[in-house]
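Pair request: fold both.
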Amino acid sequence: MAISCASSSLASTLPHDFDSQKLSFLSTLKTCKSIQELKQIHASIIKTMPFPETQLPFSTKLCALCTQSFLIDPRYALSLLAQLRTPNLPLYNAIIRGLSISNNGSIEGLVVYKEMLSKGIVPDNYTIPFVLKACAESGAVREGEEVHGQAIKMGLASDVYVSNTLMRMYAVCYVIRSARKVFDLSPQRDLVSWTTMIQGYVKTGFAREGIGLFFEMYWENLQADGMTLVIVLSACARLGGLRLGRKLHRYIISNSNVNLDVFVGNALVDMYLKCGAANFARKVFQEMPVKNVVSWNSMISGLAQKGEFKESLSMFRKMQRLGVKPDDVTLVAVLNSCANLGVLELGKWVHAYIDRYQIKADGFIGNALVDMYAKCGSVDQAYWVFQGMNHKDVYSYTAMIVGFAMHGQGGKALELFSEMPKMGIQPDEVTFVGVLTACSHVGLVEEGRKYFENMSIIYNLRPQLEHYGCMVDLLGRAGLINEAEEFIRKMPIEPDAFVLGALLGACKIHGKVEIGERVMKKIEKIEPRKDGAYVLMSNIYSSANRWRDALKLRKAMKERNLMKTPGCSSIELDGVIHEFQKGDKSHPNTKEIYKLLGEITNHLKNSGLLPHTSLLS
């Protein structure tokens, strides 16, 4: 109705002379700013000029306008195209271009191209790149190869614009050899050619080859721009190539052609963090004149991935103070740090922020919330978030199963696992770590054996060392020490210290000194410089009243300069993490803390409640 009214209004103001009407409509089309306005003008043309012959001069113009970025409506353009008797090449180019950049229109772009060829219209060096872009967007590599052949026949393949688009199409479709062949055969290459090929290598997993090509470009005295360097820096980040990354950083500083903008700065920060050079990353970050949310995310996520969770949260607090609004990536990284530090209060703040801004607690954010609550001890809250998620995946279920298992709720963990097939969700390797841990905590030996076997038989998952460790722990907790030792002996892969440590821990619980000694010798070969097994074996000797052997082992530790790793505990107070080690006196409130501990100890002694310390020595 709105279109009809607008059409009537517009028609009533138009002059009655045809030429004047034509000029008026063409002038109106020039100032058209929306697809709705375009359709209104079209309706007025149809109403004012009912004969197809009089509408033809406008149809071509309308069709071309429909493919412009701000007016794009490919379906409408196609309906107009169908009315034209003799559409020309520029019009086809415009329509194919519009379809190649529209959502879900790339396939139709190929159909229009074939229709154009069937009408005997010969493509030019503008048509081919648009068609190749449509092929790339739809993953139509076979059609792309046909277009490549046509370009060669028509003598267009040597055009630098065509060859660059060919390389991109092959790279996007993961046919990197064909992309390189086009690159090698190109008679002329510009910076876009080199950048396209380097990016193709990096995005298809050939980071080393991408860096090699960058050096070839450098040796040909072609200066890189910011986009090229962002791609090469991402390749360095993937390879962990700090030395090369630093060379590139120096190149950027010395190259006046490169603007150290926010994109290059972000790439440098990301590269340094992924190469393990957090100090360099901080320096680049601090010196960046302009930072966006991606800059902050690079630091917050990068520090969290390196295990520097306290520093990650410190960076997040700085971000808050400066009023930078976090996005989904920020929130996931912060929740990850909260989970690993046990910072429940800040995790709750993030959850409240998510609710306040009506962010969907699904996908990565929902999974991160479940993981955070479970690791911070609020397993009921974790389950509440889990139940509220509309879209659950394997990571959602795994986080909840592991959460239940960690808190001794093995029955709930296994119940949740049984729900996964009904929801059409396949478990992964991490899921089975949670399932086997749940069996171990509840003492379900037979069920654990069944799940371990089903990993490979039903789910086609190869058990890893973590799964073998869980099985040893399951058997060991149940007192099946000999069976656990035999299980290790039959392992198809060499056991590590984690697997053997699980058996040594079981020997401690059940007082199996001889088996413990055998296991200790194996651990000693794998980790001769670590103290954990020595301390545990010493406790086994002490529990069996073999004091000389315990003393001998302590003496061996001393001779090898193996210091016992001090016990560490932490507590969150008002959003701040306070860490304490055995004998630690670095805290500003040390005197008050030790005074209170003394009072608690005296109270326990007076009440006849002496702590059992055999497991703590």
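--- second member of the pair ---
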Amino acid sequence: MLGLAHNVATKVASVVHTTQKTIAGELSLFAMSDKKILEEIYTTHVHADESFDDDSLFVIVENILKRATQNVDKIVQGTQVHVDNIEEKTPKASFSVPLCTLKGISCEMQCKPPGDEIAHNTTVAILNKLSKYSWEAKASLTLAAFAMEYGEFWLLAQLRESDHLAKSIAILKRVPVLLKPSELHKRRQSILELNNLIKATLQVIECIDQFNKYSTYDPKDVPDLSIALDHIPVVVYWVIITVVACATKITILTSDEDKEYDLAPYSQKIHYVLNKLTIQLREEAETYRRITKLFRTPTEIMEVFKGLIFTKDNVQPLIDGSTKQTVKIDILRRKNVLLFISSLDVSDDDISILKPIHEFTKRDNQYKIVWIPIVEQWTDDLRKKFDILKNKMPWFTVQYSGPIAGIKFIKEEWNFKGKPTVVVMNPQGKVEHSNALHMIRVWGAKAFPFTKTTEEELSHSHAGKWVGSVVEGTHPSVHTWIKEDKYIFFYGGKDNEWIQQFTKKAAALANDPIFKEAKIHLELVCVGKGSKGEDDHGGLGRFWTSVESLFFTKDHKQVDSVSQEIQKLLSYKNESGWAVLSKGSTVLVTGHGVSVLKVVEDFEKWKGHVKEKGLEFCFKAYYEKISQASRPCCRLDIPGSNGKVPELMKCPDCHRSMETFISYKCCHIDGPTAHH
């Protein structure tokens, strides 16, 4: 529930006045326009703290209020109420409750006298306290503060007859005052109205959560969606002021005074909001269902493409990158289409990888590449960036001014999370591969026609000779050395001192007289370093991107020795040092820096067998001996934004099931290495 704040801020700013007015003496609270409410509350919003997990908080609030309101119905109505089975939801284990914030909100609401102006001022005070939270989080936090009090009150009502501690606390909370048979009978209707209003308020926040999930649709496809997104802050205002009114009502119900405080206007307003949101959500669900049906029924590719990208009445021509002219989408009819889907963070490497594919496939005119840029909120700067990128691409580009119709489908069905992906579709609109970019990175045009079957065949046929596909550009002579079947050390790591040590020791090994006598040629390639020893961030980024892509082309349900070697190399990505020894294109050893350096340093201990048994046998045997004696933890960081992540991974060293963690990373730079 974190994604709406930026969109809302952009759209709402145009209606905000520089001064804030109070409602005292001006308008009735319920006669205030949405524009007027926005003027009142928008200055309370600073920015959204996107690190706050309001989803977990709302799970807890749901658990409390669904049970509390059920207890109220049971106590007040007795056997007349239907007791629902409530599903127990679990917040994230890492969630930390902002208790002081909740207590601060609770203090604002407690023991306030009734009155619309007081309720409004209290709401604004709460919004000021929560200025750094998203609009959705403001609503959840306020309801959570209320839920602590309301849940505790009715829990004490349930336990006070059987627990002495609960009985004493209940007296302090004035629970017996409300639960006297005479008072309960007299105030029965007020209690039930309060309880129903709390249920409806909870449902409104559930709708806001759903809008966050659906908000990436094109507003033109769902006419009321744009209005709904603009008015999320207004909805949050009505949620908070309703909660404030409910807190005041509880104070009155548990007091000795016989005051009146009619919640009917709040109930009418919150139910109006709820009904409106429910209708809009139903329309959005229908949009998703329509797109899903398109992909389940064999349909001509052009029709599928139209349904995925455009709204019913908003079909736009494509931009032909080779001519810079617009063309009708009929050009895709009866073609195989490669959908190049990405955000605007597309590197030159990503584009250069696809250019040979474009040249290769345009020969017989049966394949078309179409770039679909995913932008959820366009700005002038993003449009400029789009134009720059578009001009670099010789294939077709989708042009539009808003989010595409099927963005939710793309994210959920094709696991799109921001990084470039290539979805391959045949002329009947069937998806042949949900992300062929990995095999294109590894095998280029050899991967034609880019289907899942082709990927499996290539993976099997190139099983033991994968190193050549990931070392492109690491050294000018690398492909010559591979063709000459030379021994090659590819190595690198995070620790420059380790790299210097290994370079020195490995060079001494390569120049040892034993190697010359045995006619063994060993070459060294330091990945991530240029010819003069300077850092080559671009080359390093491309190397690890290729390794990751190779990893994703493997079927991890059936693990073989090749998959394990690739997995092992990927697990060394963030280590101080690593090395791969190959003979030509065949990988002999993939090793952790500590173990490999030890093998090289101990050359004197195993060099005597090299002439007789060969370098391959001697190095592998000694490496196995060293690695068994000292085996560091194996950590495998799989970029989840690249597609589906295997549910279970076996350790490439000991074959035990690996523990699963989620990690986040930023390298504080732009370009190819930003993701590494």
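Observation on the second member. The radius of gyration is 32 Å.
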